């Protein structure tokens, strides 16, 4: 790619990254050392959640945003999972509801109390069982309340209706591990990248693959829908093992519109797209740089703007939703950068330099707000609706009226020797497998004995009934 400055008329060509001062960072966080290619971080206007290193299961911290500075080592955690936590995502419509998925094959929904955690949280409001192997990704539907997507290492995407706490659809078109999921603006299409080197555009309710690309020259890792432009952007690796991005038409994946090589580093490239400003941010895992571009509707489509540089490598990045930004400082994007070596979470604000202190309407158009456009039943019946927009000038402090209500379900259980098999992690070692096997053998023996005793009792009752019928009194 040509790195010559391109002098073009753009209000974003002078955007710069501003790192928060040390007292506004989050220090002393035991960030997970897991090598799974996720961000391990989720942010909304009230809380910051970070997956942490922990022994005996998986856990994550939930910290109120105003509680900056050093985090105590004994700070309360969300620690109900029995395997490593692989992904976490905040509900876009209810700010204290977070979904997590784990190596223990479950997806769990947690309700964070007002003001944050005061003690360790081990009980989830909802536990979702359906995957047969570990679950690597969770994603909330962008316009519908209580619809959650989860992708597991069983190569399946399950669609959960949290109103009933059950999976309602399954997308079963992948032949290997799903690496990334991304929705278009109204959530009517789902784009996925997969370890089988294919990019797919799927109709989520039917599971039908609308478009599929076999990426031979561009091994895809991550994908993002570019708002309502009907375009996709993928990051991956070229045949010469250089990091690369490609732009696609969502209605024709036979060939990318453009391919651009970025550099020769080996870390994964995470793409972030801001539909309001049409800016694309590329952040490399393991390096400290964030490049940003402006996306246009005509060739060359991608216009390089600038690069934020930092010597500290990032493990992952959380992104603040638009309604949580500081509009008075002309902030158009905010990252929360995970620096594992320092145990530090560092906010980075992307700022448009403006002299005026008044509200800048040209850089803050109407943006998706905190109100859902559809109910789960409406979406499942086939309805699509664009997100309900809000103005950041007046409404960005408004709280959502949506409340999460966990479905009341009868708890299914299979208790063997005092251990509930459905509540426990599937056996991972041969010894665990043998223990479960012998428990099941004991349970089968006990049930057989119980059955034979009931057979004897049934025969006795049949004889008594026969005697009563044949007794002289009845004649």
Automatic annotation (TrEMBL):
> Which family does the UniProt entry place this protein in?
Belongs to the WD repeat coronin family.
Q: Where are the WD repeats?
A: 78-120, 128-170, 171-212
Put simply, this protein is called: Coronin
Entries under Gene3D superfamilies matching the protein: YVTN repeat-like/Quinoprotein amine dehydrogenase
Q: Where is the signal peptide?
A: none
**What positions does the domain DUF1899 occupy?**
5-69
Q: Which organism is it from?
A: Piprites chloris
* GO molecular function terms attached to this record: actin filament binding
Coiled coil ranges: 444-471
Q: Which Pfam families match?
A: DUF1899 (PF08953), WD40 (PF00400), WD40_4 (PF16300)
- UniProt KW keywords: Actin-binding, Coiled coil, Repeat, WD repeat
